[in-house]
Amino acid sequence: MTDNSNIQLEFDNIRSNPQFLKETYFKDIEKYAGKPRSLRNYVSEAINLMTEDQIVPEASFSINNAGDRVTVSSPRLGIALGSTFASDLTQKGTLTLSNPFGQGGEIGCETSIGVYKSLLGGVFYKDRFQNRIELSKRQESPSEYNHQIRTVESSLVLQPKKIGNHFFTIYAGERRTSAVGQDRDEELRNHTGISQKFSLTHKYYFNRQSIDRSVWGRLSTEIATGKSPFLKCESLLHSAVELSQDWKFETTIGLGGIYNFTNGLTPFVDRFYNGQSYHLKGFNFKGLATSKNKKTYFGGDLYHTTSFSVSKYLNEKGVHLFAFYSVGNSILSYNNVKDNFKNLFSPSLYRHSVGAGVRCEMGPGLVDIYLSTVLKKQPTDQTHTCGFNVTLRL
What we know:
This protein has 2 domains: 66 residues; 252 residues, Porin, CATH 2.40.160. Helix content is 9%, strand content 48%. The strands form 2 sheets. The protein has a 16-stranded antiparallel sheet with strand order 4-5-6-7-8-9-10-11-12-13-14-15-16-17-18-19. A 3-stranded mixed sheet has the order 1-3-2, with helices on one face. The two termini are 42 Å apart. The model has no long low-confidence stretch (mean pLDDT 86). Keywords: Membrane. Pfam families: Omp85. It is found in: Membrane.
């Protein structure tokens, strides 16, 4: 209990020091003594701030008839289980505890299982200012789309509080890539090994608040040091033009490139892959042959994709019917800049696909479920006729 000459504050079932709560959220409460309506509004706003800072998952309050005692209580402790499905086709589960040290924020653990034999486990802490630190380990085993490569990644990641639409990530980690199976040729061995990385990533999102805006997108830049230092840049631009009340024409353009400061290959886990960094509809996850030996799971250092679609609005829940045409390319660099860009933008190497499906607006992203036909591909590309992808604005 915290005493005040005018108003007495009590906190029930809240794991924080009462003095900390008063000084942080209720420091001006005495100004509202004798003003019942203003007092209720002030306490309600303070509880909203406590919820945002994860002091409590939810709370209620009561004021006695005399108006000189306020009781704030939380009906439950902030323990929560959650599950999400990410754009890289992984199912993530989380267990969190709010306000673990009495200063807000949350601590938790998370695990994820991917459709293509990827596993991740980690623990994290996020303070009430939204600064986050995470320690995790990720493993991807050989699968239908990655026949001979196993990767294991251990990392420490710090994500400071966002500044407007700017997000920063500091990464330190070790990645191990190994070949399995009988057919471990020299080319395959060139893509394996151990690498350490320390990097800073900056992401900028524009017009991300509303999916209805005519133009939105993101820019991402990562500068990495370690055994194979590199500069990695990506951009996504989505535009929409209203053709009529229910019809819309949309364009999505994605570009990405990695410049390696050494003469070696970019580390395996840092490359671009279809279904992770970009979505070229009609082609399987990691299904583009980008390397000299045409193995699809080696990824690329450069990519570009463009998709045009016409959609018809169906209902107020954000469901659309759409038809699309997609074109793009991705290549793995071998330190020949001139040939790399020549091959990347060579029309003879482009992949083309068309199709139709259903698009749903779900929270911060677009979910596409579609049928497709590939018009042109490289001989060893892997394709499908039915697929889905998620494009996130956040």
